[in-house]
Amino acid sequence: MKHRFVAECSFLLLVCLTLAETKETCTTDPPPLSIIFITKRPGGFDVLLECLAQQSRRDFELIIVDDLNKERHHEAAKYAENLRVPLRAIVQSKPKTRGKRFGQCNAINTGLVLSRAPFVSVVQDNVWLPAQFVERTVKFFKEHKRDVLLSYPERRVAPPPGRLHHSLMNDHSTLTIFDPPVTVDPIAEGWEVQSWNNTMTADIWSNIGKDEFIPTEWFECAACTASWELYAKLNGLDEALDVGDDSQEANVKDRAVIMGQRMKENPSDIGKAWNDLKTPVILINHHEFSEDETWARFERDTNFHRWRAMKDLMEFDEYPLEAPNEFSLARVRELEHSFVQSHLVTRDGVVVDVDWSFLPKRTLSDDDRKQLQVAMAPRFGYKPEVIFLYDMAPEDEANWSDGLKETLRLLRRHFHMILLNIGYMNLEDQPEIDFRLKDTFHFILGWGDFSGKADYFIRQYNERINPRRAEKGVQLATFGIILHGPHCTPDEEAAAVYGVFVCDSPWQERMLKQDFPSLNVFQAKGIDPRLLQLEGRKAEAPALDYVVIGDFTSSSRPELLIDKEGVRLFAGRYVDRSSPVIEEELRAAGVRVERMPNATRRRELYRSSRVVYFPMTSEGSGETILLEAMACNANIEIEDDNEKLHELHSMHLENGFVPDSQAYTEVLVKALWSVLAPGALK
């Protein structure tokens, strides 16, 4: 082989090799994609190398981080060479700074340091990548922004009887655990398809195979891709999690999302997850959960609670968003290539060992170390798992910013919170609830009324799932509801199912207790004053005479706004099938119409309108808008027959202040604990 050394600004443009026997030439430019394969198990190399040898596009580089047995590296490199797979490196991971047993984050970071490409795919063991994987991945990032995330549908298959060689599963020197090795697509070879990954969301598993890339909330690391730049901004994966197992996906996605939320430019693009429906990867079922240190995963020391604790701390700037690793990933590509080259050991053009002393050091502050200690507590104290169910159209959810949204964030100090939008459900079909969730939560908190989707979900859960938990001797989930909507009078089933009811007004509390005086009821509502920038009312003449902000529903009585004179605006949220009809009626009457505005727009409307008008009945909405309008010193007009809003208005005028989301949070914490641990707060 002939070696050519090329000086480039990126330190890893190190060695270009001309392979005479294959006529393949490595160029001076970095490849478009690095594929990082991490493993600490026997086998896996046949599945990896055979599928990569069949890729429709071959201009990628493969980096293997194998922490099981260094003695098999030479044989694996020969395997790759025979298949003409462009192997960049096969090494053990860099020395760990935390944790002793696990090390997936450290292993991925090792690959990131050695990567030269602008985009990086991480692949775990015994995952077959379809032939178009590289081609489709490169295509995606040519068409989308750099700081998004890409994953792929996951299909699980079972090896044919006798194909999985159990003696090989304990052989640390083997390159395969199958006899014979896997050399073709398992599904094409007729292997049994067991299932799709049951954590995938409906938008993925109902559309698999379509020639589309779709935005989605689901992101998994059996195979996933992101830009090297995004990893550098995050300083790689947080190696503090290497004390336990799993959570790489959340480690990347959640931190990227939080970073995006804090950035002023294009925040919605940072960390946004996409899925390539046309490129499902195949996970070969080979796990064994036993006492063997080689194969035990997930069940023995999961990071599930550690990661949730870290994320909660990040929400309040109490844990660093940039991973507190003891090196700087961003500075790696700023190093001189000759300096780094002197720390690499190559054999036949492949990096086989590394002197890691070249890594740029990052000194942790005392605060960083203290935060690490807090986050690494086994369960971060006792924080119950709470899932919050809500029904919101995607357009309305995108503009969701109010006191409730801030309160849900503040609740993370007290509970592990999961937010689940179930707006996709059609109650007229009486659907079977699809519980594709990790069933570890203690409390389900719904937002809606007694005919809504959250109420339906909770009653179904109580009827179908709680009995199963009882049979297993598992703690039953408990339930509460924050009432929002016209149907706020409980029936006997609701009175029995729900442990606590949270209402917005004293009027609602009376309606709840009218037939069931012993119900556990809390009354609270709060705004997020930060969103409203409460500096007083604008001096210029109002641009609108009347503005209504509420729900497009009959209980909002849009006909009363139509009867008003002047410039009128109705801004609201779709809640049922009548909503678009009501919108058209308003437009036909000359009323301006907008969908539910975000906080900035609501603030403008409060201050640019002569009157903030509340035509709705007592069964309608309006509590949040009333409190916000009061905080903005708006002129308020409430219809005489709306006892609920008149009472709420008078109560806060007498108090002399409008409650904020912190006060709302304090009440909700008491409400939830009144069910989770009755008497604990007394």
TrEMBL record:
Superkingdom as given in the UniProt entry: Eukaryota
Residues making up the signal peptide according to the UniProt record: 1-22
User: Which InterPro entries does the protein's record reference?
Assistant: Glyco_trans_2-like, Nucleotide-diphossugar_trans
Domain Glycosyltransferase 2-like residue range list: 48-165
UniProt entry keywords in alphabetical sequence? Signal
Q: Does the keyword ATP-binding apply?
A: no
Name of this protein: Glycosyltransferase 2-like domain-containing protein
From what organism does this protein derive? Guillardia theta (strain CCMP2712) (Cryptophyte)
